[in-house]
Amino acid sequence: MLGAVEDAINSVFDPVASTLSSIVFYEVSIFGTDFPWIVGWLVLAGIIFTLYFGFIQFRSWSLAIKIVLGKYTRKDEPGEVSHFQALTSAMSGTVGLGNIAGVGLAVTLGGPGATFWMIIAGLLGMVTKFVECTLGVKYRETHADGTVSGGPMHYLRRGIAERFPNRFGKVVGSVLAGGAAVTILFFGVAGGNMFQANQTYAHLRDVTGGDDGMLGSAGAALIFGLVLAAVVGAVVIGGIKSIGRVTSRLVPAMALMYCLACLVVIAVNIAEVPNAVGLIVSGAFTPEGVAGGALGALIVGFQRAAFSNEAGLGSAPIAHSAVKTKDPVTEGYVALLEPFIDTVIICTMTALAITVAGTQFYATAREEAFLSGGSEVADGVTVTSDAFASVLPWFPWVLALAVVLFAVSTMITWGYYGQKAWTHLFGRSLLSERIYFTIYCTFAVVGSVLTLGAVVDFVDAVLFLLALFNIAGLYLLAPVVKREVRAFRAKLRSGEVRELEPSERD
């Protein structure tokens, strides 16, 4: 009976995901490789903002770290959470299975060279995240109960209408804000929810014995999804303060645990590191090979990096908007650290661990299974798990714990993001929020039983559609952010903003 329910869900969802993916990922042929125009949209935004803000991601490290540590934040500043809690809340939505399963898929489909382009995407994404999170705080709304709502639904509508005080500004802002709210809601239940549940179950089933193990029986995925939904729902209902308390402890701990595990894999295969680095660099520029050579590696690398760090999507500003600050740009500086930690550090460590552990099987049967572009591509998380298992047989259990923690934290944060999009569209009321939480938890169950291909198609399509709305608005509002930067820098020079004594800080 339960198996029939799973089959029915897949039969409905698969064609929907395939159709949406084909619409969003319209491709043009470049040097014989199909290139999704939406990937170019993300790349171009990162380049333009990097130039427009004078490579701010490389010039502001010291200031960003001081702000994260609360050295400029007074106790009485408006907002709900500290800079550190806002950062960890947002990172709990990005440091997740995109770092494990997403990187596994990138190396699988684009070869080791995709790692190089993931790093470039992360560096460019730092500025995009800086822009959107500054706007998120500037145009946030504080409600009567003291809670805060922010994100693209607010800065696209209010910001564009304010900058262009005519019919054009009002119409364009409303259209972009509405489109962003709808796509955030859909991505929340798909990428931030279904994908996490899907890959968590896939890995736990693999670790416990595959189809013959205790999680391989018909209906096991359904039961797993119900348990996962209950855990996530219990935290999300508490709001951003509850999420901030949980993620400020969970995110640093799980990131440290996972990075240490990656370092062990790399250390055991230390002799393979030079060869792995060579594969990553050469694979990024080779004219032919896996998935269309250099261009194919670039496409895969940027797609996976975007899914992992969410720069340009407008999701992170929802969490960052709740920060305690009166200077919006301070949270922009904090936010630019996200893609570096998420993509440049954690994703790169995952890719390096996979490559050093797998250099011996790129020329064997695994190359045919994983890198041929055929239908036998394995689950992304399984590829990463194989790298861990090459060191010690019990290492996949360490990864299994990381997978569960990453997935739960991501689902918690995206539950909050989706809630803000939902209330923007349907209003803030107890009944409205209860309906949303019911829907969100239901899709956690649905994601557990779907096939990976259908979930990835749907997630990628909605993710890049969200980027279309958000980045269009960022271009229009970039001058607003530049004014905020200049004003804050002037306050620093004049001493109006200074490093506070410990007793003055939040």
Automatic annotation (TrEMBL):
The keyword Membrane applies. Signal peptide: none annotated. Gene3D superfamilies: Amino acid/polyamine transporter I (1.20.1740.10). It is a multi-pass membrane protein. GO terms for molecular function: amino acid:sodium symporter activity. Its main location: membrane. The chain crosses the membrane at residues 35-56, 84-108, 114-131, 171-195, 215-238, 250-271, 277-300, 340-363, 394-417, 437-456, 462-481. The keyword Transmembrane helix applies. Keywords: Cell membrane, Membrane, Symport, Transmembrane, Transmembrane helix, Transport. It is found in: Cell membrane. One of its GO terms (cellular component) is plasma membrane. NCBIfam families: agcS. PANTHER family: AGSS FAMILY TRANSPORTER, SODIUM-ALANINE, TRANSCRIPTIONAL REGULATOR, LRP FAMILY. Belongs to the alanine or glycine:cation symporter (AGCS) (TC 2.A.25) family. This is Amino-acid carrier protein AlsT. It comes from Pseudonocardia autotrophica (Amycolata autotrophica).
